[in-house]
């Protein structure tokens, strides 16, 4: 019987009642090898690439005495010294002199305070987060100072210009007029000039204007 998998395919005869295979035979049982932490595969373990090389005696069967000696040295090299691993900054990262200079305080603090106190993981987290938080705080404070004390007005072209929006009050007639004058911005009160113009201490008398208007 020809099935829709090409004209060279013939469906096998059903020899079992399993709905999971074309032949009807149940799939092979799943079994994990004893003493192994590999994932579960079928008993014949078709996913393994070790084959006969899984046995150390088989791997070393064809080695000469000199090769066995070198293999023993290699195995001994896999045991790290008590001081290893050694982190060498010059190997793991390449920094230009400017970055080395501005990173020096926090690098010193990480090496002598943070890592011995909090460990590598939390010490690194503090080392990465704290400088960025301080820089963000400094930028925010600078912007706030510039906005509050260096605002743009009639005497300065620099600074941030603040233009208050006109509030829409639906029940204005029910509110106290004095409170509205104190709480809401009213540019008409200053003749649509900067409020600081009335508080100026210089250029009080400019004389008669020569303008024709």
Automatic annotation (TrEMBL):
GO terms for biological process: mitochondrial electron transport, NADH to ubiquinone. Transmembrane segments: none annotated. Residues 1-42 are annotated as: Disordered. GO terms for cellular component: mitochondrion. This is NADH dehydrogenase [ubiquinone] 1 beta subcomplex subunit 6. It comes from Pristionchus fissidentatus.
């Amino acid at each position: 019987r020809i099935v829709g998998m090409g004209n060279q395919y013939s469906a096998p005869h059903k020899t079992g009642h399993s709905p999971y295979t074309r032949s009807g035979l149940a799939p092979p049982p799943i079994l994990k090898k004893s003493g192994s932490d590999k994932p579960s595969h079928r008993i014949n373990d078709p996913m393994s690439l070790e084959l006969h090389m899984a046995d150390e005696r088989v791997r070393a069967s064809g080695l000469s005495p000199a090769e066995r000696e070198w293999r023993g040295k290699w195995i001994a090299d896999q045991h790290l010294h008590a001081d290893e691993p050694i982190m060498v900054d010059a190997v793991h990262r390449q920094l230009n002199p400017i970055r080395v200079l501005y990173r020096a305080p926090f690098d010193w603090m990480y090496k002598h305070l943070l890592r011995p106190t909090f460990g590598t993981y939390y010490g690194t987290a503090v080392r990465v987060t704290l400088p960025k938080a301080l820089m963000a705080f400094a930028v925010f404070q600078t912007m706030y100072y510039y906005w509050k004390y260096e605002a743009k007005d009639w005497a300065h072209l620099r600074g941030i210009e603040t233009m208050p929006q006109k509030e829409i009050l639906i029940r204005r007639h029910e509110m106290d007029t004095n409170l509205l004058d104190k709480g809401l911005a009213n540019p008409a009160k200053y003749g649509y000039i900067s409020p600081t113009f009335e508080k100026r201490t210089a250029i009080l008398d400019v004389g008669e204007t020569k303008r024709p208007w």
